[in-house]
Amino acid sequence: RVVVVAASAACTSAFLLLPSSTWYPGHHHKAKNQERHLPSFPLGVTTTVLREGSTPWSQDDDEEVGEDVGTVTEPLPLLDQYHMKMYDLAKRTARDASAVEKAQALMQEAEQQGLVTVDIGLYNLLWETYAYASHWEDGVSAIEREIQQRLEECDDDAVAKPNLESYAILVEGYAQRGNVEQLENLLDRLENEIGTQYVDLKPDLTIYNKMVWAYGVMRQADKAKELFQRLLSESGALSENDNDNNSQAELRPNANTWARLLRALALDGRVDEVKEHLRLLRQGHQDFGYEDWKVNVNCYNALILALLTDGKNSKEDSIRPNALSQQAEKIVYEMIQAHRDENARADEMRLEYESSEDGSGSVCPNRETFSLLFQCFRGETSVGVAAKIEKLLELQQALADAEPESWSIQADTKMYNVAISVLSRSRDPRKAVRAQRILETMLESVDNEDQRAAMPSLVTYRNIMNACAFTRGSPEENLAAYQVAVQVFNLVREYPATSDSSSDTLHSNMMGNIYHLFIKASFNLMAPTQKRDNVVERIFRKCCQDGYCSNKMLDEIGRRGSDELQLKLLGGFIEDGIQTR
Known about the structure:
Blueprint: H1 2-17, H2 27-34, H3 59-62, H4 78-92, H5 99-112, H6 120-131, H7 139-152, H8 164-176, H9 180-197, H10 205-217, H11 221-235, H12 255-266, H13 271-287, H14 297-313, H15 323-348, H16 367-375, H17 384-402, H18 413-424, H19 431-447, H20 458-469, H21 475-493, H22 504-525, H23 530-546, H24 551-560, H25 563-570, E1 573-575, E2 578-580
Antiparallel strand pairs: 1-2
Helix pairs in contact: 1-21, 1-23, 4-5, 4-6, 5-6, 6-7, 6-8, 7-8, 8-10, 10-11, 10-12, 11-12, 12-13, 12-14, 13-14, 14-15, 14-16, 15-16, 16-18, 17-18, 18-19, 18-20, 19-20, 19-21, 20-21, 20-22, 21-22, 22-23, 22-24
């Protein structure tokens, strides 16, 4: 204990006295915000928080603070510049209440420049900001009005005519608001009234895929399955009469349809139904020769997600805590073996195996696979869990190194945050040091100016500080944990403030949590001496000065602080939950 006190005091002095440039100065955060890579301009797929490929983990654990801002290395044509700006607003609208107003002003400016007479793409991005503006209930109605107005004026060559992508965005808007009835009314109008009057607006497989996705978002798995069965029936898929000459053959479900259906079932925890549909998928590929009906990484991810959701929904106390993680881990190793077999077959045919950039055509586990796998360990707190997470991260890194061109396999901040979150809940007394090693991996990618760097976020630091605060070990292990806490706090002090007001609340909450956890770590890892009181006092005053004080922090000081510290900071004592003077 003497060692802990002395060393902890030394760490504290370092935290209080060292200049901001010590250890890791944080200027990498600023550099990263200043230089990010220009995204492409896909329509209807720009908001990532609620995307078709999103995962169901808690946003509190894994949401990022900040925004993606593309940078341009060469001058873009003026219209493309407006696309870029509108793209950024469309991506931010779910968390930035001002995005819609800014997008409308940008559109007016583009119209004045005469840039949008026949370009529906810019309008689609504008409507996407409406679709994902959760604070604006009439956003979908606004999209419908503007689409209808343009349809009525489509005979005018100077008016950009809505396309199916416009209606796909409308589908997304209904899905985000959970409006099943209006969604189905829209599909009915597209199939009949609108599709009859405007042939190029008759629903195609892209629209039906979007509908299946929407049902999944709204947790309407039965409706997703019903629509999928309808597509199978109308296209003649999996029937003896199926052939490409069928007038409805273009409605045969493709890989995207399967991915959305399986995810819709998975989000409802329907493990058996996911397995049954995977059997049908294999049957279509093997017996009917459907080339795009291959079990890929998205299918396996859906199966893991189904297991995870079913485990969360299960009320059976008899289920072993590690049963879920064992099943998920088995699936991941099955994927790795299948991936090796893919490469072996390619080698036998003397073909170079090429993985797509998004990895969707492969069975190689990607970062979503590992994020889901890590979540399957969340119910486990044994000492061995932390070491297991580290080993799995090493496996993920090996796969990423073997497929450097596959973007989806590379680790990102969200995946690391989930791993650290799970690790922090274990009883391993060295979990803080393990979490620090993950942080160093993330920082190394930033230092190397890796284009796909996993930039640490406040969530990252909060999760590591949580590991420190709840460490229970020997004096040496407690010392190591407190050293990590000090280092993390130095990084947090340099973390840049958010540039948009919509993130202010999230930023403040995270900072308040980190301050609170640092005080908890001080109480748990330092001996109850005057030096500890001095440390807590300085942290508390700094916290109050920065505006991050919370009831949690006051309660922590009331429970753990000495009488002298409580009197000094709180103006009284906390006894049995009641403050006295």
